[in-house]
Amino acid sequence: MSESGFTPRVFSGIQPSGGLTLGNYLGAMKRFVDMQEEGRFETIYCMVDLHAITVWQDPAALARNTRELCAGFIAAGIDPERSILFNQSQVPEHAQLAWIFNCVARMGWMQRMTQWKDKAGKNRENASLGLFAYPALMAADILIYHATHVPVGEDQKQHVELTRDIAAKFNHDYKVEFFPLCEPVIEGAATRVMSLRDGSKKMSKSDPSDMSRINMTDDADTIAKKIRKARTDPDPLPSEIDGLKDRPEARNLINIYAALSDTTPDKVLAEVGGKQFSEFKPMLSDLAVARLAPISAEMARLMADPAEIDRILTRGAERAREIAAPILRRTYDIVGMVGPAT
Ligand code: TRP
């Protein structure tokens, strides 16, 4: 089935499990903002609280993290008028369609998911049933809007492919062309942000050292200090990309600089090649502070007004349901579930 009959629509989600880093900003949110600005798509962004509880979440922390993630989206540039911004649990159609997909997806498909294998670890018997079914809920997130484009990190590509398999099997089994085959939109290497302490590891909220990451809530002084102390090597910067081979820390700082200044690593190196880190780091620090400090300030402002955040989320959920409810109803009709005619 070609997707030509479907409205170009972007859906993506982030788990409200706490600790937003520069990796979330450059790898996800900034790209979501770019897609909103492009004007080519309807854009729908979701705080996936139902996914978060597939592993234990303290209730108070989940509520705080959901509001903080919402503040992060808005501070990063998501406009809740132009995009639809909401938390997953408030649009019950996600869970309802997920049940149908639990009956379409096969156990064997789920067992092959690398995230399941990684997260369940050795003790699979003790993992939640929700963790196993996670990809079917993700497929429902996307397909309940008939979304056509799904910006995700490399680690989620397999789940988007599974979403296509679920859509194709549903369409085939029920002899319809109802669900689109969505495309993953994968981030480039330049937006993969690595640890400031070890350029071979992804920047992570769970790294024990806070110096390994820049948090979206860090203030200007903290950002500057972390960049000043970031690990580097003794050589000057190369003028071309090839020269970053086997220099993961240098590569990471160049990538961050390029992403923050909306340019490419080649262009950055053409400008800074030959400089020592002692000269480059203050440049990076100034840029990072200029870009990120306003975001953390805006997040703090929004977090001081949780009622405003809750109003935004309520309105977002209403708008999401306007799209989701008729698609669920038509799905039920296709499956043979008796109810109000459409
Ligand atoms: N699984 C995604 C992650 O952990 C989050 C997510 C849930 C998602 N539903 C989605 C991403 C739908 C894209 C589309 O990063």
What is the CATH topology descriptor of the largest domain? Rossmann fold
* C-alpha termini separation: 24 Å
CATH class term of the largest domain: Alpha Beta
Task: Identify every distinct bound molecule in the structure, by name, code or SMILES.
Answer: tryptophan
Find the structural class using helix and strand composition: mainly alpha
Number of domains: 2
Shape: globular
Q: How many whole angstroms does the radius of gyration measure?
A: 21 Å
Give the spatial strand order of the biggest sheet: 1-2-3
Residue fraction in strands: 5-15%
What order do the helices and strands follow?
EHEHHEHHHHEHEHHHHH
By CATH, the superfamily of the largest domain comes out as: HUPs
Question: How would you state the average pLDDT, rounded?
Answer: 96
Percentage of helical residues? Answer: 40-55%
Q: What's the story with the biggest beta sheet?
A: 3 strands, parallel
